[in-house]
Amino acid sequence: MWQRIQTALILVLIVGLAMFASSSPYLFIAMLIVGIALAAQEWTQFLPKPATTTSMVHTPTFYVATVLVINVVSLAFPVSWVGWWSASIIVWLFAVIWILQYPKKISWFDSRLTLVGVILMTAAMTAMFYLWSLSPWWLMYVFVLVWSADTGAYFVGRKFGKHKMAPSVSPNKSMEGLFGGLATGLIAVLLVVTFKLDYTGLALVFFVLLSLLTIIASVFGDLLESMFKRQVGIKDSGSILPGHGGILDRIDSQLSAMPIFALGYWAIQQFII
Known about the structure:
Layout: H1 2-20, H2 25-43, H3 60-76, H4 81-101, H5 112-134, H6 136-160, H7 175-195, H8 201-232, H9 247-271
Helix pairs in contact: 1-2, 2-3, 2-5, 3-5, 4-5, 4-8, 4-9, 5-6, 5-9, 6-7, 6-8, 6-9, 7-8, 8-9
């Protein structure tokens, strides 16, 4: 437990410094690039192994390099961001079906996961940079939203959890835990709405609904990674974070939460306010 706490404190320090130490984007971008490179490396464990080819294009190194190039180029062209976020939402809609059908149907376990990884990681990275560029506090809001929901889901689920969400994927997650997470997340939403925002009318309604949808989406981010790990027979996506596992183990919820919140917030700014 102490090792887990130490790792968490170091992570908070690193992320906090990258987010708040400078208004220049370079430190934050550097953190994102390192994070996405590590996540891409771990993602290669989920990809079906080619039966015969030894081509360079099928190696983990090539995949990581490809993801990095796509992410860096995407960061340089903000016009592409909404497209990535929209594409990721389509993937997440399919992911819900995959999770509900597992393990009876695993047609998704093929070369398509290569593209799925590119979309999800690029969408999450550009979403985080977009929110940070608006204000580091907007990015922190999504972090807090997901963390508070995770905490509520954990304690409510342990105490009252009876109806399992997806027992074949993650036996510990329950519908009661989901509702507990929504309740604790709603507290964070109400605090921000009351003390930090001046939204009224439709903008206020859409912001609250967007925040709750973000919480729900974060649960499926966690479930998707759990399903992938179960399929390939691993407990953690990596070991780089002592007591926590890999990078994907820590950002799985953010992979779904960030693009959905970013796209929804962008839409509120464009069409409602």
